[in-house]
Amino acid sequence: MLNVENLVVRYGMIEAIKGITFEVKDGEIVTLIGANGAGKTTTMHAISGLIKPASGSIFLDGTDLTKVPPHTIVSRGLAQVPEGRRVFAQETVEENLILGAFSRKDKNMINKDMDRVYDLFPRLKERRTQLAGTLSGGEQQMLAMGRALMADPKILLLDEPSMGLSPLLVSEIFSIIEEINKQGTTVLLVEQNAKRALAIANHAYVLETGTITLSGTGSELAKDERVQKAYLGG
After folding, report:
1. DSSP-derived 3-state class of residue 27
2. Consecutive H or E run containing 120
C-alpha cells in the first residue's frame, strides 16, 4: 500500500526528517507517535505532497508520489485530514463535503458516499445547512474527516484528530476511526494521545527528532518501558 523509503525533508539548513523508512499495509491502522517537533506533521505533509522531500521515495501501490503533482495525489487514492481541521468556515456542512469530492465525476457514488458520511457522523446530517465556522471543535473535526472521505480514499491520513477535544469526544472520534477502517479504508494516524493511538493501531512507529527510534505492533509498543515512560505517563 504505502511505503516510505529513506525520506529526508529539510527546512533550509535544518534536517527535519532524517532518512526514515516505514510502511502501511493495506487494511491496517498505523500510527506515528512522538513529542511536539518530532517531525510527525512534516512526514504527513511530505506524503500528501504539501512539502517536497530533499530525497527518498514515497510509494502508493507502486507509484512514487514524489514524482506526482500534489493536486493529483488525491485522485490516486490518498486524502489527508489536516491538523487544526481547516474546514471552509463560510460554507455549509454539505458544501464542505461536496468540495471533498472535487476530483470525482461519479455522481451516483458521490451521493452514496455522502450517505455513508452522514451514517458515520449523524451530527453532520443534523447540521447539513449550518455554516462550518459555527460548529463546535468536535463537529469540525468530524466534518474534516467526512470531507476527506468524500474523496473515496484508499488511505486516510489523520493528523492529530483528538487535539483540543473533550475526553468524551476523543472516545467518539477513535471509535469512528476504527469503523472507517473496518469499512475498508487504510489509516495512517499521527497522534499525541499515544495511549489511544496504540490501542487501535496494528503497527506503530516512534518518531523522535526526525528519526524512527522504535517500531512494533501497537500492543508491543504500549508495553515497552521506554514508550510508557516517555508517552504514557508510566
Report:
1. coil
2. helix 107-120
Q: How many CB atoms neighbour CB 233 within 10 A?
A: 8
Cα(177)–Cα(83) distance, rounded to whole angstroms? 15
Predicted confidence at residue 234, as pLDDT, reads 58
Asked if residue 34 lies in contact with residue 205, where contact means CB atoms within 8 angstroms, the answer is no
Sign of CA dihedral 137, 174, 158, 205: positive
What are the residues whose beta carbons fall under 8 Å from the beta carbon of 74, sequence distance 6 or more? Answer: 103, 151, 153
pLDDT of 180-190, one tens digit each?
Answer: 999 999 999 99
Residue 52 burial by CB count (10 A; 0-12/13-18/19+): exposed, middle or buried? exposed
> Where would I find the beta strands (DSSP E) of the chain?
2-11, 14-24, 29-33, 55-60, 63-64, 78-81, 155-159, 186-190, 203-208, 211-217
pLDDT digits 0-9 by tens, 71-113: 899 999 999 998 877 899 999 999 999 999 988 889 999 999 9
